[in-house]
Amino acid sequence: MRTETAKPVRLEDYRPPDWLVETVDLDVALHPTATRVRATLSLEPNPNGRNGAPLVLDGEELSLVSLSLDNVPLTPERYSATPSSLTIAGPPRRPFRLTIETLVNPSANTQLMGLYRSGASYCTQCEAEGFRRITYFLDRPDVMAVYSTRIEAEKSDAPVLLANGNPVSSGDIAGTDRHFAVWHDPFPKPCYLFALVGGKLACVEDSFRTMSGRAVALKIFVEPGKEGRCAYAMDSLKRAMRWDEARYGREYDLDVFMIVAVSDFNMGAMENKGLNIFNDKYVLASPQTATDADFAHIEAVIAHEYFHNWTGNRITCRDWFQLCLKEGLTVFRDQEFSAEQRSRAVERIGDVRVLRAHQFVEDAGPLAHPVRPSLYHEINNFYTATVYEKGAEIVRMLKVLLGDDGFRKGMDLYFSRHDGHAATVEDFIACFADATATDLSQFLRWYAQPGTPELKVTASFDARARSLRLDVAQTLPPRPGHPVGEPMVIPLVLGLIGKDGRDLPLVTADGRRIERGMVVVSRPAETLVFMDIPEPPVLSLNRGFSAPIKVFAETSAEELQFLAAHDSDAFNRWEALQVLATSLLVEGVAELRSGGRLRVDQALIDALEATLSDPGLEPAFAAQALSMPAEADIARDIGEDVDPDAIFRARSELRRSIGENLGPLLEDRYARVSDRGPYRPDAASAGRRALKNACLDLLAMSGSSAAIGMAEQQYESADNMTDRMGALAALALHDVPARARCLEDFYRTYESDPLVVDKWFALQASIPEPGTLPRVQALTIHPAFSFANPNRVRALIGSFAHSNQTQFNRADGAGYEFVAATVVDLDPRNPQVAARLLSAFKSWRALEPARRGKAEAALRRVAGLETLSRDVKDIVTRMTDGGVRTTDKG
Ligand code: PHE
Ligand code: ZN
Questions:
Q1: DSSP-assigned beta bridge partners for residue 423
Q2: Fewer CB atoms inside 10 Å of the end CB: C or N, the chain?
Q3: 10 Å Cβ neighbour count for 827?
């Protein structure tokens, strides 16, 4: 346990390293409990560092075996070694070689940081600060070195030995049953990108020819027996490689690109140079075991990690405050990739749903922080929706502001100017400013100010002057440590739609035609005037969600219905339905709480009916249209005094009413989009299944025996996991015998496949019934469950805490108590997973008083414990102290 007095790291304290590392030569002898690591570092004083500074290397839980300088053993008075640092007081002021021998125990490593075991394999995870758990090092991303790695192991224990870069040599060690492999990575990299793997792994191979004609071997390593489930990952990889060449002119740079899938992994995947390590959930897929959503995630994560080779690896971050420099940019790149592989509009809707459900919620609560924080206590807690998803939105806004050509010029300059370096957000933005001669200084505020900007738009039409005036006012809500917001640069794409449903040309008062429908709002209040407007138009604002903001405009239900049917911007057609539904739900929640009823507006029913009947709309879009705002979204819109039960009831009633009102149409669509041929994972087929299951979902809301029978029938006849899970999810909402029967059958059918059993855990944890908490508690002792595996914990406990709004927020507080107690139990074993689980409390301040009191009591009990990891301590403190820990006042 490492509870210690909190010493935050501050961006303003950044100093270049005093020492540089030119090369790292590692020699690792794998052993289950005593792995010996010999690291030889060639060090030299940094001309930009402090002259004569001591050499202080980072470590964590290390034990030193031996230490020598230029091959001469160092006597104990020349250094001091603790498990967490190695200091050499008077090092030579010239280049020298330091050889450090340490012992580590991978089997005892339950945090899954550094060198650990997953099943029978050895693997590593070094981002952000895991390399220091392997050897003493300058564990910071601006120290970039060329690595050579020699690994040896018992042949029977680890026949496959992998590390970053290209293979150099391998062979048996004479007279032993051990063997070795040597790898060399010619590209200088920070230590967080180091990786090695050893184990009994099967390999699926393919190859790729880069645009300049170089051959690259592609290899995916999995546990033996799982080779048959790698095809989609391999196909996604090849498409991603081709796409980065076509869109950014970036080609792969080593002779081999390897992916290793492991079952125990804290996050999704990791972009280690040439040797990506993946949570196997983002590699393995077959029609029988993976849903369409799983296939889409695999495609996105494979692409994401591959794209990091240029945005993250070749150009890395100067320090961890710049995390969004690689993550926001790479998420943007993978989103664009998916948009071009699938349907742009549908992908955008999905991305915005995720942004609102996670990032907007985070930004509205005590864990709010800027996309580039200026202070942290534990960097692991900043792999957040804000850094990733809002970070991606900032890059997208740059593209909207500068246009496709300007954006590409800026990216080209970024790649040429910073290749091989550790860069900052300022460096990145300067490339776009320089390449397009644009002043982006105000734009930088997006990185510094937390909170979701709000834009209020008031329209006035002047019939005599045939002009439309828009008064636009922007505000930034005060956030912890950021009481006043400075105005942002907001690229607002808009349209004015005439009665015939067509976009009117946008002409300003001085006769200028507005290109791409984009206006830039950069002052607190602005007035925009459009000329030659024959009649009051309907406003379509923030098209394509051009900026990650909340827009408030007085749009009537009739206008929203009109937009849903006619907007040329598909995103805003969907958005109009969501706005219509949200206002109805927010009113309905208030009604229900005061004993009234939910009033379902016919405008919404009519708009949904029109959408479903429009033959020009793709099924995947129709499915998104039918999917009502999530409970968390409604809660965020209500903002305070939130009652999760009332929200659930309002949403259920609305869905039931849609199902009843549109019954025949939903049944008709259900039948029409049901494919008969064999399963195919492509976007169009997935879209049809999405619509089919969205129809079933609404039809089943009635709980009638016909509806339940329909779901059961789909469950039984499904030839793929998407339809099977769709049916099971519909059944899960009803406490009927068919549900128990199907859940039983599901477990028996898939019990040998942990990734599928996770779906079974997650579904049961999400059931909105009082019986769920005891059910989840009982499942923690189910033979298929384990607290040691992050996927299991996330599936069962994570789903309960993050996705089951009514049961996590039980009025009696038992949900809070259970999750808090689980966090405390898990913390000594795996602080990262524990801290993430605790973040489920992030909206506690918005709850109605009784629940708020119970949530706070649970949090305060955690906060009061003596031995908490830094990870959990940081989250619980920010959660309970108003969030000042991420500000400079902290
Ligand atoms: N860098 C990983 C990514 O691609 C995420 C990650 C962070 C993985 C920390 C492991 C540990 O987003
Ligand atoms: Zn990433």
A1: 317
A2: N
A3: 24
Q: Which of 118, 127, 830 to mutate to test the pocket of ligand 1 (most atoms within 8 A of CB)?
A: 127
Whose CA is closest to atom 1 on ligand 1?
A: 270
Q: Which residues contact 75 (CB under 8 A, 6 or more apart)?
A: none
Q: What's residue 221's pLDDT? A: 99
What ligand is nearest to the CA atom of residue 383? 1
For residue 755, give every residue at least 6 positions away whose Cβ sits within 8 Å of its Cβ, in sequence order, or none.
280, 281, 284, 289, 290, 791
Q: Ligand 1 centroid to 127 CA: how many Å? A: 7
Residue having the nearest C-alpha atom to atom 9 of ligand 1: 127
Q: Is the CB of 334 under 6 A from ligand 1?
A: no
Q: For residue 577, give the H/E element and its range.
A: helix 570-593
CB atoms within 10 A of CB 499: 12
* Exposure on the CB side of residue 322, measured as CA atoms within 13 A: 22
> Both tokens of residue 766?
């999400």
Condensed to tens digits (0 to 9), the pLDDT of residues 548-574 reads 999 999 999 999 999 999 999 999 999
Q: How far is residue 553 from each of residues 41, 281, 579, 716, measured CA to CA in Å?
A: 61, 42, 11, 47
What is the whole-number distance in angstroms between the Cα of residue 269 and the centre of ligand 1?
Answer: 6
Task: Give the pLDDT score at 3.
Answer: 44
Q: By three-state DSSP, how is residue 7 classified?
A: coil
Could you please report the per-residue DSSP string of 593-661? HTT--PPPPHHHHHHHHHHHH-TTS-HHHHHHHHSPPPHHHHHHHH-SSB-HHHHHHHHHHHHHHHHHH
Q: Label the pairing between strands 178-189 and 63-69.
A: unpaired
Q: How is residue 542 written in tokens?
A: 């923030």
Nearest to 299 by CA among 255, 275, 345, 268: 268
Res. 676 pLDDT band, cuts 50 70 90 = confident
The CA distance from 380 to 869, in Å, is 12
Torsion of CA 697, 295, 348, 430, to 10 degrees: 150
**What ligand 1 atom has the least distance to the C-alpha of 380?**
9
Q: Which residues are catalytic?
A: 305
* Contacts of the segment 572-578: beta carbons below 8 A, 24+ positions apart: 572/495, 572/540, 572/541, 572/542, 572/543, 572/544, 573/611, 573/625, 574/345, 574/349, 574/621, 574/624, 574/625, 575/545, 576/607, 577/604, 577/607, 577/608, 577/611, 577/625, 578/629
> Does ligand 1 have an atom closer than 6 angstroms to the CB of 271?
yes
* Ligand 1 in reach of 304 Cβ (< 6 A): yes
Q: Is 270 in the pocket of ligand 1 (CB under 6 A)?
A: yes
DSSP secondary structure letters along 469-530: EEEEEEE---BTTB-SPPPP-EEEE-EEE-TTSPBPP-BBTTSPBPGGGEEEE-SSEEEEEE
Structure confidence by residue, pLDDT tens digits, 692-735: 999 999 999 999 999 999 999 999 999 999 999 999 999 999 99
* pTM tops 0.85, yes or no: yes
Q: What is the pLDDT of residue 675?
A: 80
Whose CA is closest to 429, among 403, 408, 398?
Answer: 398
The answer to whether 682 and 689 are in contact (CB under 8 A) is no
What are the pLDDT digits (tens) for 783-816? 999 999 999 999 999 999 999 999 999 999 999 9
Ligand 1 closest atom vs CA 383: 7
Return d(Cα 362, Cα 353) in angstroms, integer: 14
460: Cβ–Cβ under 8 A, 6 or more apart, which residues?
Answer: 468, 469, 471
Give the 3-state secondary structure percentages of the chain, helix then strand then coil, rounded to 5: 45, 20, 35
Contact between residue 451 and residue 477 where contact means Cβ atoms under 8 Å apart: yes
Ramachandran assignment for 501, one of left (phi > 0), alpha (psi -120 to 50 degrees), beta (any other): left
Q: Put the strands of the sheet holding 160-163 in their side by side order.
A: 114-118, 121-125, 196-199, 160-163
**Omega prior to 820 cis, within 30 of 0:** no
Using a 10 angstrom Cβ sphere, with 0-12 exposed, 13-18 middle and 19 or more buried, the burial of residue 824 is middle
Q: Which ligand is nearest to the CA of 271?
A: 1
